[in-house]
Amino acid sequence: MSHTSEDFDTSIPVLTDVVVPGKPEFARAPGRSVQVNARATDYDAEFLAERLHGRFTSFLTGDGRELIESRCRDALREHSTWLVHQVTREVALALESEVTEWVREAVEEELLRRG
């Protein structure tokens, strides 16, 4: 989700409106709208909180949910792969000693049968 400068509320000042790093002579003074907004801080805080709540809800039901699901799938796949490798290794170690014993018993039985 990409936002252009037109998507943002221009009544909210950004850092570049008041500061230009290394060149204070180029910094712009906050506009009149910033001064007007300072008087309505309580209303603005509620309004901004509602807008942020709406944006978070929208994000978490859209792109955010897809991102979370994708990361969960990747984590499950990675963990499943690790688990399969662990179980395979354990089974191989257990079978190694068992197969050796089975072969020894089969050879002894065959020698007894022939002998």
Automatic annotation (TrEMBL):
InterPro entries on file: DUF2486 (IPR018924)
Alphabetized Pfam families for the sequence: DUF2486 (PF10667)
Source domain of life: Bacteria
Name under which the protein is recorded: Uncharacterized protein
Organism: Caballeronia choica
Lineage: Bacteria, Pseudomonadati, Pseudomonadota, Betaproteobacteria, Burkholderiales
